[in-house]
């Protein structure tokens, strides 16, 4: 197996990655893993070029070759200690330009038809959550990010429905099934345990 790519929410990825690696190496101790934890927007192209054997990443609308592992509804969140007036210019924290979450957030903000301003951008979930927890902005996040310090503000601020993020697994078209199939099985097992 040449390489295996993993991209998932900062808060959950490390634990899942450890489970997957442990399960895989129990059955394939001689296989060398090349694991890439990075922004996942380049993963589909890397799979097409054969630079990666397997990738895990998030999409809004999966294609036929992407296996859905986990679904996470999105919602607008704010700090539990901060409220924002409905009619004032809303400060928002967004993901960077390469991420579909940013487009989904901007579509949602425009459908709301009220003024807003982007005050913070980040490539990571942790970065957006930090801005929201600090009370400087609201952010579109997966419901799995909700904790005692955050609150959902969709209704309070007049947001309508938001998309569901799908964590998917996809593989290259390269031959060689043994280790790749074993890795897929380990990944599926880690996510089934979560359900």
List keywords for this structure.
elongated, 28% strand, 2 domains, 195 residues, 5 helices, alpha/beta, D-Maltodextrin-Binding Protein, domain 2, single chain, nine-stranded mixed sheet
Write the layout of secondary structure elements.
Blueprint lengths: L3 E3 L3 H18 L7 E3 L5 H7 L4 E6 L7 E13 L10 E6 L4 H13 L3 E7 L2 H9 L4 E5 L7 E3 L11 E8 L6 H17 L1
Parallel strand pairs: 1-2, 1-3, 5-6, 5-7
Antiparallel strand pairs: 3-9, 4-7, 4-8, 4-9
CATH class type of the largest domain: Alpha Beta
Q: What's the order of the H and E elements?
A: EHEHEEEHEHEEEH
Structural class: alpha/beta
What overall form do the CA principal axes indicate?
Answer: elongated
Major sheet size, sense and barrel closure: 9 strands, mixed
Using only C-alpha atoms, the radius of gyration works out to 18 Å
How many DSSP E strands?
Answer: 9
How many helices in DSSP terms?
A: 5
CATH H-level superfamily of the largest domain: Periplasmic binding protein-like II
Give the oligomeric state.
single chain
Count of domain modules: 2
Identify low-pLDDT runs: 7-11
Q: Give the termini distance in whole angstroms.
A: 28 Å
Helicity level, as a percent range? 25-40%
**What is the average of the pLDDT values?**
86
At CATH level 3, the topology of the largest domain is D-Maltodextrin-Binding Protein, domain 2
How much of the sequence is in beta strands? 25-35%
Q: What is the correct CATH architecture of the largest domain?
A: 3-Layer(aba) Sandwich
